Amino acid sequence: MAGAADLHRSVKNSDPISMNSSHSDEIHRNGNAKGFKIFVGYDPREDIAYEVCRYSLLKRASIPIEIFPIKQSELRELGVYWRERGKLESTEFSFSRFLTPYLANYEGWAMFMDCDFLYLDDIKKLVDLIDERCAIMCVQHDYTPKETTKMDGVVQTVYPRKNWSSMVLYNCGHPKNRSLTPELVNKETGAFLHRFQWLDDDEIGEIPFVWNFLVGHNRVVEGDESTFPKAIHYTLGGPWFKEWKDCEFGDLWLSELEEFQKGD
Ligand SMILES: [Mn+2]
After folding, report:
1. Which CATH number does the domain housing residue 34 bear?
2. Which intervals of the chain form a coiled coil (predicted)?
3. Domain count along the chain
4. Mean of the pLDDT values across residues 211-220?
5. DSSP the chain
6. pLDDT for position 66
7. What's the 81 CA to ligand 1 centre distance in angstroms?
8. Tens digit of pLDDT for each residue in 222-249?
9. What is the arithmetic mean of pLDDT over 163-174?
10. Which residues surround ligand 1, an ion (CB under 5 A)?
C-alpha cells in the first residue's frame, strides 16, 4: 500500500498554480504556502465539466489556488481507495470525496466540490467566510429531490442532508477530521459519510446557498442580490449531457465552454 507521502508527492506534482512572492496572511492562516487547495470530484464521463469548472474557478480567483481532480483510478493505484462500487453511487467520487482532509495532509483548510459546478465569482469571497471554530462548512440545503434519476439514468437515493457534501470547506487540521482516514472512508456507509456523522451538528458551519446554487431547486429573486448565484451546481445534469443542453443557466456554461476552448 502506498503511504501518504507518495500520495502527497503525487498531489503536489499535479498541476500546481504557482504563487507570487507576496504571500498573503490569509494563505498563512490556512497553513498553505502555495495556495488554497481545491479538490474536485472527477468522473471520466464528465471530463469536460471538470475542465470548464476548473477554468471558471481560475479565471475569477484573486488568491492563489491549487486545483486537484480526485480520480478514483489514481487513488486505487496509490492504495488509499479500495471499496467496491455500489449500485447507488451516481459518480466515481461518491465516497472518495471524504478523503479531502487526508489528501490535504490534515493541514489548513481545503475545499471539496463536485465537477458539475460553474463559478461566477471570486473564490476569495468564499474563503473569507471561513470560521475557524468549525470542523466543516457547507450550504445546508433543505432539499428533497423529486427526481428519482439523474444524469444518465442512474437511480438516486434520498436522504437527510442530501447535497450538503457536494461542496464542503474542510478544516483539515480539526481534530475531529482526523477520523476521516482511508480505512474509515473505505468502510463507512453512505449515510454516515454524507450526513457527516463523525461530527456534532454545532461543528458544521453554514455558507449562503449562492455558493452551491442548485439548478432546479434554488431560485433567483429579481432585485435581491443575495440570491444571485456565485457558483452554479448543475446537480440534475448539465449542458454537457444532450438531454440537459437547454437547462436553466445552461447558456452560461456553454459560453464558458466556448471561452475555454478558445484558450483565453
Ligand atoms: Mn453534482
Report:
1. 3.90.550.10
2. none
3. 1
4. 95
5. ---HHHHHHHHHHS-PPP--S---HHHHHTT-SS-EEEEEE--GGGHHHHHHHHHHHHHH-SS-EEEEEE-HHHHHHTTS--PPPPTT--STTTTGGGGHHHHTTT-SEEEEE-SSEEE-S-THHHHTT--TT-SEEE-------S-SEETTTEEPP--TTTTGGGEEEEETTSGGGGG--HHHHHHS-HHHHHTTTTS-GGGEEE--GGGGEETTT--PPTT-GGGS-SEEE-TT--TTSGGGTTSTTHHHHHHHHHHHHHT-
6. 97
7. 21
8. 999 999 999 999 999 999 999 999 999 9
9. 97
10. 114, 116, 166, 235
